[in-house]
């Protein structure tokens, strides 16, 4: 009898442990807020994690693009100015709330846009951004393979040829296969690729400085400045870097929720995201200007002969695949989180493949996107800068840094974040205003701008306008209608 | 259905923990005025410094 009771007790304890583990897994996926005791990362762990995210081959691409507009001295200034402002505003909008409540970023977004509005924002900000980057990184992979083949055969590379397209399509399909297998392999690649990329950057910097002194490099001109006005070229370079800084908006909130508190959620972004991205971009900029070529897959073949070129290109191809797997995995996890029941019903492998169809189409039918990738990057800032402004206005100035966990995670249909059929028209209107302000000041497609752009940039006014509109309209209309649980 | 109820209870438990922390002012590592001032100064110093140096 005693043995029976003892065994029953053990069984109950095991069941309780299992349930606790299930609940924790669900909280990690974002279904519930992570409790302070469940969060793992301190200051240095988070710094390493977001450095690993920021140190990717796209930093070389952005640095190379900056070299088109301005010389290295102005370029370094633009990289620092644009990234620090972009990263600080993005981190303010997303990380203090995640660090305080352990809440999933797009669940928290229900308080700003409504539970259906947050889905719209997810599609606009995450899906579009990820699909674009998947295509660009796949083309970079394809160009690396094409360059590799050309270097081995002693021929000239053909960066938009059929070899590039086949390799890029292959990269997307292999990425789909890796991610369909699960996250374990991705984690392993991350542990190897990030430190190796730092080593690659240091080697590249060393090789560049072997041929020219730092002072000589700083004095070099831009590769292809689009305007005669140097100040305008400089501000466009700052704007591209603001866009790079704001482009972390979809990702860092969900990383920060794994940190122990607000401070550890915020400050590592300055060291990790800002520091690592700026370092990578500066290496890309110096190499591009020194070697007269903005495309990393071409300047790498020129930097130190065929042998090092082959190793560097092989590594870049490998690193690109890792970045592609990272962003694809993160986006699909989030998509299932915000998706409707019918989206959740699609199998993991099938939803991944469906997501890859547009990047595949871009690679095959629009390979020119690679050379103008910064145009795509700047377009995303029209949205991300407005989202950052709304996030700051809502959390700090309208809610006094308080969120209601019960309402955010409970049934939404009749909850306070129902707003108007699940959409907060105020938040969405503010987002539209921020977007329009951006495009009126600076058109990313044509690079045309109004005179104020030279003094204000486009991202900063867009961020301020969206935040201001959200604040004023919420104060005027939301409380009276009982929308959004505003104090 | 049973799982749903259990999950709602779990959500309730987690929400209550945060409400207790909030009510008792026991959030750890809260960003203070010093953090926000430091962040503003750092950003301004980098923007102004690199603007003067590079532009």
TrEMBL record, chain A:
It is a multi-pass membrane protein. Pfam families: Transp_cyt_pur (PF02133). The keyword Transmembrane helix applies. GO terms for molecular function: cytosine transmembrane transporter activity. Keywords: Membrane, Transmembrane, Transmembrane helix. This is NCS1 family nucleobase:cation symporter-1. Gene3D superfamilies: Hydantoin permease. One of its GO terms (cellular component) is plasma membrane. It is found in: Membrane. Belongs to the purine-cytosine permease (2.A.39) family. The chain crosses the membrane at residues 48-70, 76-99, 120-141, 161-180, 192-211, 231-249, 270-291, 303-329, 341-366, 372-398, 419-441, 453-473. InterPro entries: CodB, Pur-cyt_permease. The keyword Transmembrane helix applies.
UniProtKB/TrEMBL annotation, chain B:
Keywords: Membrane, Transmembrane, Transmembrane helix. It comes from the Bacteria. The chain crosses the membrane at residues 36-54. This is Uncharacterized protein. It comes from Aminobacter aganoensis.
